[in-house]
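Job type: complex structure
Entries:
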Amino acid sequence: MKALMKTEAKPGAELREVPIPKLAPREVLVKVKACSICGTDQHIYGWDKWAQSRVKAPMIFGHEFAGEVVERGSLVSKVEIGDHVSGETHIADYNCFQCRIANAHICENLKILGVDTNGSYAEYIAIPENNAIHNDKSIPHEVATAQEPLGNAVHTVFAQDISGRRVSIFGCGPIGLCSIMLCKAAGATEIYAVDANEYRLNMARKLGATLTINASSEDPAKRILKETGKGVDVFLEMSGHEPALKAGFESLRGGGDVAILGVFPKEVTMDINNYIVFKSATVRGINGRKLFSTWYKVAAFQKSGAVDLRKIITHKFKLEEYGKAFELLKSGNCGKIVMIP
Amino acid sequence: MKALMKTEAKPGAELREVPIPKLAPREVLVKVKACSICGTDQHIYGWDKWAQSRVKAPMIFGHEFAGEVVERGSLVSKVEIGDHVSGETHIADYNCFQCRIANAHICENLKILGVDTNGSYAEYIAIPENNAIHNDKSIPHEVATAQEPLGNAVHTVFAQDISGRRVSIFGCGPIGLCSIMLCKAAGATEIYAVDANEYRLNMARKLGATLTINASSEDPAKRILKETGKGVDVFLEMSGHEPALKAGFESLRGGGDVAILGVFPKEVTMDINNYIVFKSATVRGINGRKLFSTWYKVAAFQKSGAVDLRKIITHKFKLEEYGKAFELLKSGNCGKIVMIP
Amino acid sequence: MKALMKTEAKPGAELREVPIPKLAPREVLVKVKACSICGTDQHIYGWDKWAQSRVKAPMIFGHEFAGEVVERGSLVSKVEIGDHVSGETHIADYNCFQCRIANAHICENLKILGVDTNGSYAEYIAIPENNAIHNDKSIPHEVATAQEPLGNAVHTVFAQDISGRRVSIFGCGPIGLCSIMLCKAAGATEIYAVDANEYRLNMARKLGATLTINASSEDPAKRILKETGKGVDVFLEMSGHEPALKAGFESLRGGGDVAILGVFPKEVTMDINNYIVFKSATVRGINGRKLFSTWYKVAAFQKSGAVDLRKIITHKFKLEEYGKAFELLKSGNCGKIVMIP
Amino acid sequence: MKALMKTEAKPGAELREVPIPKLAPREVLVKVKACSICGTDQHIYGWDKWAQSRVKAPMIFGHEFAGEVVERGSLVSKVEIGDHVSGETHIADYNCFQCRIANAHICENLKILGVDTNGSYAEYIAIPENNAIHNDKSIPHEVATAQEPLGNAVHTVFAQDISGRRVSIFGCGPIGLCSIMLCKAAGATEIYAVDANEYRLNMARKLGATLTINASSEDPAKRILKETGKGVDVFLEMSGHEPALKAGFESLRGGGDVAILGVFPKEVTMDINNYIVFKSATVRGINGRKLFSTWYKVAAFQKSGAVDLRKIITHKFKLEEYGKAFELLKSGNCGKIVMIP
């Protein structure tokens, strides 16, 4: 089969012909009908420090996908051939302390698809049956592939109350954009969306942000404080950008809630007294999706029509055009990019 | 001044001329610009068992209102003449254990406006300054009077998570109707509204119920179970009707949440094993409004446009026409009824 | 092997010689070193209405046990031969909606050991490896068998805050007694234990109840209200007795928490207005143990010494003496009764 | 009256004779029978950067105290002459948004006794009646003065579940020591106490720490990880020391809870990815005491005997001996120091 691989420990990737994966007894083989690009893939493609320390070439990368089950391992019982599925990308052991206390998303032996194992930038992928999430067949695969990052947004947004509250969202990549849709659906009364890219701020406005702030031309903390008086009730950090983290805390009201999904390129310097202690803030770190309550919400919001993933998917490429796709993502002038193997 | 009074311990009421109330040092005098009718007023008007046991005639009843502050007691510091206000109807002492642990809505020495003290069916009312809730002057008084029951709905609906969940609402009086608007605003994915009155079910549909069920012609538990498979995630009881309570529990999924605002005419018989224990349900009793976080949400949802109280106000009368108003309410063929003193 | 069976649909039981169970691929065979009697077993033995409607004779009953793993099914990976284990008695499918949202204790396809499947009153029992809970080998089997009901107590007690609060416990059977130990360990400032049996009230006192109330000679609601002024913060219902349910609600303060584990012989009549609505109570139904966070707490409290199950185990019989054991339990003059197969 | 004052903007303090304070209408005058020294007082005495930026000399400092009410303002209604009281040191306006949503401890117009207003290092102090907390007369004043920091500990410890969990406490000053007593009372199964002072670690051991770690001679993160395998469930930061903050996060398990009461001398540098995001940690900033639920818990734990403040009070001085007292505190070889005016 065709597969986009990290063949060497250096920037870039290569399309190769490789054998279709063999199945373990509890795995299913999925014909990948659509896959999409996450910031993580960009790190791997660009071969930054994190990628160098974590990823072992050669391997197939990519983890967002949707497709059809074409083969079942000998012990599979929950998934049928022909099922349409997305992949939960966190492979848990369901046996450790964290898994046994309902924290499988931070399993002690967690493996991440397309990072620690072969991924989805390929014609086929083998995944544990537990990780195959059934999709309603009415959802096109090229939309369903974006459910995984929608799940990150669901996990982040609903880590605290949203209804009737004012929310700031720093970072308007696809997960930030999904969060805007979710905050709107959940009755946030103000949604302040912050980014430095006009393309994305424009999308944010269309998806329901009540105010967009271009951090390259305006101080977002000052602006949010001006608009709200005392700051927002909820701050969602989705940028992994230190100045955003600071501005978000500065424009948070006392007693407010913070959820951090963004991953930072290095240690950050923080005024912990004023940001957390005196402010009596509650800060939650967010990782992956709750297994599997998040996925039920992902399905529910789409079924009700409150969230339409089509609105964040802006570009579609053939897998062979991966070079163009990664270049476009680098520019930031896009929402979610889908590739068809 | 003109005042609608319970003059004797019997059904009915009487319009009388009485002196304008004198103010205690921490009270303000409000010129009542609009008042509205609550189920409680109907109990007092009809002089049912509850009213007989609780209300001492002669007194002015009514507690939902909005108006303008025209006089301040000598120690008032938080309210100015000319302010537009609604009244929080629970008068707490802010000194007891419950008040000191942030439960002023169940103050140990609670008095209810228009039940335990003279109420708002009059040209003027004296209320403690703490109970004067500032209204944005853009809200007409005849809309603002309905914020108090909207507050009951806010308290009930947000006693548990709503976003992305399926909700049943039993009872489509004004508070039930407000709850439908709130559930819709908060991203409930299905809203099943149950009542026996077609007028109200029709309103429910317009306000966002995804399905209405007429309990006089269809078994609501069966229908909800048929629609949902396993039952709803959240059941809001707003009818005070025993069969509704039962149907609500029967159509709740395991691990679901229940909020009960309805008040029942007598003890109810319950299968506590199957409704609560085996079902691992969480049941919350709801009383009044959280002081004062509920009022901030009441304002926020109106300001954002998510809730428009105009949609539940169906009739307007002069205070003198109280007889017609109470008759109409008895028929159930109305939403919120406003009276102008 | 020797097994205590319900051989016919009538009161009583019979000791029989039956084949050792064969293992499914994911099951383990446990040599039962100790088993113990639960109220449920008493219902089955006595063949009451519930038992008649649920249990299909012939079957081996009993579900509390501890022992040693002696054989593994072909696909078992988490349990080794020689492991000391207790049994989680709720067999979940780990595939349904409830299991996938971390509610395996109310799995949609739940089977209960010794009720829906062959149980532990036998020399050997076959259980799914997921249900084998590892015990520290320092815990004697005849103590470890009581961890399952301790788990019920952990689930009930920690369904709400306990530290620094006043608690009433209605019902001082083994689970009630475990709850007393847990409330004491968790820093409840007053523990009011209610029962009608002096033997058990005496145990309650020794285990940490600050006051015991014999409901056959004193009105428990009045007494608790007298002691507390406004009622307790937390009411744990562990009796399945309607007057206890009422007394518990009556002696609960406004805004208090209720956890109900007791199962009632029939529908109960409740003043839902005063017990739940006006009181703004939160009521939680409790079923089984949280899988598996409860078991980690069970282990932690024993390891720290805060809970010593030896203190609630009052009698030990050979399995052959089951007649005596069930007779003793009927009298109520006992704590937990252990049987050795 | 005699008063210990910050007379000039420089290190040290001076005992002066000043007039007894005059009362505002809602204030009471308290004869200070005992006061005690907080770290904040040490900052003011030593005149560090924070003190320079916040405190305006001349003023009486000190805020922990207990005494007897000797005079009432004209509108006081909740406090009687002769009442024994402690002082809640956060003076809120009970009118702002934060106060009205039950966050009076972070009032938007907060004043702190002995920091923003004249304090308790004096023979008399005037405080708002709302800030006078009634003490049981059986508690000696020189014990009651330490209830205010006990309240900080209550607020911090019970910001998350403690029962049956493993806890690390970094910083064994008086609040840390109170926290150890509370964690023990609440059934924490392991309490790891960390400090660099042997005197305090010795106290920690006596009060219930299951292990003490001297951070000057041993790496606390390594040790806690060695003891626990996966880290503690709860980390309480009470030192305001950057290396402690880091060690605390490093020895926290995934999904753990953090409460930060410590105030840091400057910005800290944090690996936010590994400490919060990937770890899915929940971090809560703690400020003051919840008004007034914390105070009810403070009373409850003392009444039940679970907390005995005598155990943390190690030294008593006359107010005139303040020089010695502050010198002793600087050495760290003390628990709580009480002064008698």
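Summary: Chain D touches chain B through 13 residues (CB under 8 Å). The two ends of chain D are 10 Å apart (CA to CA).
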